[in-house]
């Protein structure tokens, strides 16, 4: 084909090429602020030329748009997702550690450290006038303030731990929802690609979901044919088929479920209650299984992580993908808990461990105070011999109508920061506070006829506990008065342990460690944010829309369009000469 009509077709192809380029540029400009959008480029190529026999050779036939591609760097995507997972972990930890600092509220006038100081100060004042009911009332009220603070702090720790667990449950739902959306987009993308088109906007939507998903845990994206992907976590925790999204739509895939409760059974096994896909809106999603050989440490890890691998319906599965039926008894090694090493799920899991440690340290303070004060107050090494304990287990202690403690109800060894309380029998009658040297020989101080009213030996001994060295760090659920607060021969003083520490020192060490942890977490967040911003800037320089660049392109394509239109107009004039000129 040659002649003016061939030239006309060349001009027409140029018009189409310029118009399509303007369309792509307009699409870029309109999506300049669209989250996750990657700029696109129209790739123009020459049309196939034709050969004129006996002439100059091949003659060009114009241009066409071969493809519209999005500008994306897969290596930067990989970096962004890896670092987003790390930031998700650090950010979660920093947020919760900041809340823990707020709960402890140290140093402050209302903090536990200050209240402990006021508690011992009140005993010091009582030792000056042991017969004074006013001073005794101050001791009782300062004790009440201290126990209330310990109770409230423990409850707030407990609530924060439950909040972290709730966040895991919400994350499981969001993760499964995102995976379903990614799976649907994956199938759409492959369908469009098979038809010969380029699904750029669909791929942007899928990549945006992948970027957001990576904040929960580190992901691996394997590219398949027709722009399909397989998606799995970096940490597969022994799963043979760990894919969460598969390009092969006919294959089974995995999802996650949420552990709501773990209960120890009388035979030593553990009943695990979980909700398929994390959906707690209906009891039909509630499933159970029995673990027959789990250790306490394994159960603690399971309680902190709370995420199980499941099939596409959320039913718990073993490593080989076999379904665990509702109510089945299995070995712990057969259970597959999802334990990522980065991301917000890891942050939530690790912060629960931290909260558990702070609760344990708070319990140690409560036990140390209760055991040592009770030991000196009564002069009894064995709690069973103490007829009038100063501190009691407020959760179990009961009283008769005369506000007298039922001794059998007071489980002193189970005192924690959650339940420590002043004996209401003492609170209602402060004259029952024991302050004298030989009060240990009588059930009530009013029965003591050996010592004078101004005898203050026992009050002084309790006041001096402020500086006593106690092995608080060794306290556990088996600790008793005898192990933590051994009395000397006078039954007045707790023996110092050179390997121990003071109550105030132990608590301040706890606060200091928290401060260091919080500072480190914030520093990690700042550093990781800076690193991620730097990578995102690099990504934006490649994939982001520059309005200046697009406006320059728009002018360029506008001129190209006008020039091709001029070609067509010129050919039209030439044809007019040929057609109409022949009539003359």
UniProtKB/TrEMBL annotation:
GO biological process terms, semicolon-separated: bacterial-type flagellum assembly
GO cellular component, one term: extracellular region
Keywords for this protein: Bacterial flagellum, Cell projection, Cilium, Flagellum, Secreted
Subcellular location: Bacterial flagellum; Secreted
Any one GO molecular function term: structural molecule activity
Domain of life: Bacteria
Limits of the Flagellar hook-associated protein FlgK helical domain: 97-229
Residues annotated as domain Flagellar basal body rod protein N-terminal: 8-37
Domain Flagellar basal-body/hook protein C-terminal, residue spans: 542-579
Family matches, as PANTHER family: FLAGELLAR HOOK-ASSOCIATED PROTEIN 1 (PTHR30033)
Family: Belongs to the flagella basal body rod proteins family.
Protein name per Swiss-Prot or TrEMBL: Flagellar hook-associated protein 1
Source species: Clostridium cavendishii DSM 21758
Upper taxonomic lineage: Bacteria, Bacillati, Bacillota, Clostridia, Eubacteriales
